[in-house]
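Retro notes - structure team

What went well: the batch runner handled both jobs without manual restarts.
What didn't: labels got mixed up in the shared folder, which is why I'm recording both outputs here explicitly, each with its sequence directly above its tokens.

Job 1
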Amino acid sequence: MTEQTDYFDDRIADAILHGSPYERLRVRRNSLFDQRISTKLAWQSVVLLALSLVGPITLGYSESVAALFPGGTPLTSSPIILMPGVLVLLLEAGAAAGHVAVAATILTNESDLSTRRMRQLLSVEEMASFYGLIGGALLLTITVAFFLLGYAGVETIQQYTTAGAQGPFDTSGTGLSVLAVSTVAFVGSVMLFTASRLLDTRMR
């Protein structure tokens, strides 16, 4: 057996022998998202932490690239390329709410939950995990890639801009600035990581 296989076997055996009924049901579903809620919240916090880097990324732009942003100040502008990042915030907030709601239900009523009800909660948890981890990660990749494009220089950026069309750094019209999204993402990352540590100790 490989070390990875041994790890998964040990985790499953630990859940079956020492875990709650909900944890035992989760590992038996053989799902892509069979990790503990605390673990998935920690992963979500990493997604948000990565998103918060878009602010610092803009600080390294050259003057010519910075001039492409509305007002010539990337940090306080609201460019079109920021919109996937806004969607990341919404997805992670919704996914976190789903994860926490399931955890709260388990912590307060697990002894009274039927197997059918626990399966329903697992379905909610898996949906939250899919949108928060898969959807969030894809949109994060798009966002960071667009912002890193700024380091390629004005000439490269212009190759991706159709004449007469809106460019990636034109204003989005939403009023949401790079600084605001970056700050909210960082605060959200800290909150989710804190929640993951609390749940890790409560849901053992």
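Job 2
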Amino acid sequence: MNLAAYHAESNRAMPNASFHRSSAGVKQAHADRLKRRVDEVYEMSVRLTSANCRYQVLETLKQLREEAVELASELSRHAAAENQVWLMHLAHGPSLRQDAAGLRAIRDLEREHVLALDFIGTFLEQSDLELYLLDSGKAGHDYAKNERLKHLSDNLTQACLILKARFSEEEALV
């Protein structure tokens, strides 16, 4: 039996086999790197809240913004690859299409993804505004402003926590 025949037979005997192979590929290709990125952004976000001096707060906030932009971009690429796998399986795998719990789980994962992106977007908007006001001289930088800047990362921290939970749920589903 050649390799193609083996895979065809394997897929008939186990309808979810192709789904598991392709989803494992997506997971391996993207999830490990994405998890590391989320962990790094989370740690940086937490570090911002404990920063002491104005310079440290501003530099960490600027660096965190760059990381958040890259994280949002990676999340978009991950979602596109993941959607291809889910759509392929829904088209060719009747077991998940008929499994209401599985469909709800996929829908919930997508909602969490959107919610995390919303939190990242809010962080980016708020930090853009604050950094613009500081750079343009339209806002002073006192202790209260420093504390507000430190807590801008709260939305990003929340996004990272959502993503960490989502990755665990995704692994359980696959």
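One thing worth noting from job 2: Residues 1-17 have pLDDT under 50 and may be disordered.
We'll revisit the folder naming next retro.
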